[in-house]
Amino acid sequence: MRFLLCILFVFSFSTCYQETDKTLLLLDDWELRLEKHKSYKKTKIINWESKESGIKEDDYNGFGIYKAKFVIPSSWYKIDIAFYTPCIDDSDTAYFNGEIIGSTGSIPDSTINFQSGVREARLYRIPKSAIKWDEINTLKLKVYDYSSIGGFCYSQQPILGDYKIIKRKKTKH
What we know:
disordered N terminus; globular; alpha+beta; 12 strands
C-alpha cells in the first residue's frame, strides 16, 4: 500500500509540474543590434555576471535592441501571458509585435533625462490583441546602458508564459 501511495504521489507531482511547464517558454534565442551597428547578430543571453556572449562589447555604452522570435500556441488563449526577466542594466522599453508592453527606468533622449532601472525585475503583461496565435511573434527590448557592462544581468533566462505562475515563482535578487 505504501508503495502504491508513493507511486501516486510521484505521478501527481510530475503531472502538476508538467502542466506548469506547458505554460512557460524559455526565451534563449536572441539577436542583438547595438546602436553603432546596422544589423542584428545572433547571441546567447548576454549577462554581465557570466560575461558569456557572442559579441565583445563590454565597454559599449548606449542603446541596443534585443530581439527574440517565437510561437505562442493557441492552447494558451485562456491564460494571461507575460514576459519576465529578473534584471536589465540599465533601462528598457519592451515591444511585443511592435506594441509597447512595458518599460523600467527611462530611455533617455540625453543623459540628463536618464533614470536607471538596474536590478529591478521586469514583468510585463502582453495584451491578447497583440498576440499572433500559432504564428511567429517578435519581442524587442530597447535597452539603454549608461556605463560599464550592460544588457541582461543575472544568469536566469528570460521567460514568457502564464502571468500567475511567473508572479508566484519569480526569484527576487
